[in-house]
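User: I'll paste a sequence; please echo it back and then give the predicted structure.

Assistant: Echoing your sequence first, then the prediction.
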Amino acid sequence: MPHRPRFSALLAAGFAAAILTATVGPVVSRASADERGDGRRPPAGKGHGPKRDDREPKDRYSIEQACSDRAQLHTIAFDGLAFLTGGLGQDTFFPPGKVCDFFGFQHMRDIDAGELGHNSLFLTRIADNTLRILDEPQRARLVALAREQAPRFEEFARGRWTVIRAFRRLLEDDVPAGSPGLDATAVAKHVGELYAIDGELSWRRAQVMGEVARSLTDAQRKALAAMKFGDSRTWPEVPEQVDRRTMSHREHVALLTYASEFFSWTAGSIESDVYFCPERHATYFGGFYMKDMPAMRNPGTSISTALTGDAGEGFLAVLDAAQRPHVEGLVDAQRSALAKIVETRRTIAVELRLFLEKDQTNRDRVVDLARAYGRLDGEVSTLCARAFAAVGKTLTAEQRAKLAKLRNLEGDVCRGAFLYSDPIPMPDMPGSDALFAHPAGGR
């Protein structure tokens, strides 16, 4: 009897639908590049109608596309809509897969010829196939890594809250007395230290996965080679390989992530490692919540692939001639930082790939590069926060009503906050005064 998909079985076993969906991304259907709405369609007002893009996925998804003006404008506008219609709790929502993303998994998802790339089964299928091929000592290395790194993942998530709270305070005019607003240098430094944690975690992940890769037998290499990068049709359905009851939730999520990324890293390329989706940066504004929540609450449903583009265009259409340039101008304002981000990602990815051939690389260099990467992300994020706040403070009641409708989460109630995608009571947020500029003449 053929093995059936395990999504319902996982739910029955108590694996929360919300956590599964947020871990692997929303369940979405594959559409043409012009229909996806995450940068493949021209922005509103440019005089170009949508046209079908019949290219294969592998030819449509690239770092150049992700950084294109169209992709970035749609994503920025979508985040602006989320920020101005959401709240602090929604802003804390963050998919775990956006941490340590130097191993080609996002690219493998986006170019999947089997059209499973953004389905909730995608990560678990390749993870279980990989774990099935590895032997017990190799699996044990990944399990030990998951237990080692789980606390640092939580440290990273909690560190984001300071930035999130500062940005929300800016919007709400809740700045320290006399402060003129955000201190861009302070924000960049704080985010830089967060990304230094990401760099440490990434370096260690590459070290362990490199050890496993170098220990593969010829038979294991042949079995892995039978499964194709970017074509989930070559991945058989196999039973769950690890009893998650022997691990904490965070450890189990980490293990599945390592196993899936082991395959994408060893079967992929440096170009796949450098690639990111357009919404990879400036992730402090609730966009992931607005995009993922429908699928989280309705497992197995689909989210329109036009969501980001349509909602982003709709957001810009609601703004008036004085408000719109704040958002549209961000494309040019962040251009230099985005180019440096790509360059930095490539340097990090090249360094990490050395582990496939040897047992040691320059850890300090990776951490320093990751810190620089974070500073760039902080720079871009501050630009967005200032622009969104400027727009938010001038919205009319009529505009707010239109944006609330455009948010399309009627009846949604967010009670508390999130640790990644895990709902938690609203925590005591760490102080964020240090991210604001001092009053003129003050310290």
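The CA atoms of residues 130 and 224 lie 7 Å apart. Residues 7-435 form one domain.
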